[in-house]
Structure to design on (165 residues):
């Protein structure tokens, strides 16, 4: 999977597209026929519009949102990094390491105080410490500072459909 967010030409979406997105944002497993029934949009039109939105990259991908604690990952934390002494190659190596570690489930380059934001899922505190220690030891030459924030409770997970005008 390449970059998750791509910049470029804005997709032109209308009220029918929004209806479709509202339905699939709550259950992406619905068949085209079910989406058609729920939106009162013809089946062929639903299929055409979903394909169009994927081609325009308005829809990035369909996925399941897992519950880490139920799957045995009692620690789910954001870890933010401030980097220094950075070269293009060092940044590429660091990002590659983060992206290939199975316990690091989210990686983003950010603005502001933190250069990189990640999310880590770990079985327990010891496992979390092992992951952080491995990162810090392997990249001690470029990590200036880091901070962690464990997720205790989620209050919103938004699919952004309401942002479509």
């Amino acid at each position: 999977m390449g970059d998750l967010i791509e910049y470029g030409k804005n997709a032109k979406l209308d009220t029918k597209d929004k209806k479709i997105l509202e339905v699939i944002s709550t259950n992406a497993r619905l068949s085209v026929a079910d989406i058609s029934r729920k939106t009162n949009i013809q089946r062929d039109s639903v299929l055409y519009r979903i394909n169009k939105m994927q081609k325009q990259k308005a829809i990035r991908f369909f996925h399941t949102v897992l519950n880490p604690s139920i799957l045995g990952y009692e620690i789910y934390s954001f870890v933010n990094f401030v980097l220094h002494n950075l070269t293009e190659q060092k940044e590429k190596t660091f990002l590659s390491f983060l992206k290939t570690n199975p316990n690091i489930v989210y990686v983003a380059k950010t603005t502001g105080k933190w250069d990189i934001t990640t999310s880590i899922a770990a079985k327990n505190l010891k496992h979390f410490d092992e992951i952080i220690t491995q990162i810090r030891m392997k990249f001690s030459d470029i990590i200036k500072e880091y901070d962690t924030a464990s997720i205790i409770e989620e209050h919103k997970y938004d699919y952004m459909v309401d942002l479509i005008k």
Q: What stands out?
A: The chain has two domains: 15-55, 75-150. The beta strands are 75-83, 104-109, 116-122, 143-150. Residues 75-150 form a domain with the Alpha-Beta Plaits fold (CATH 3.30.70.920). Residues 95 and 107 are 8 Å apart (CA to CA).
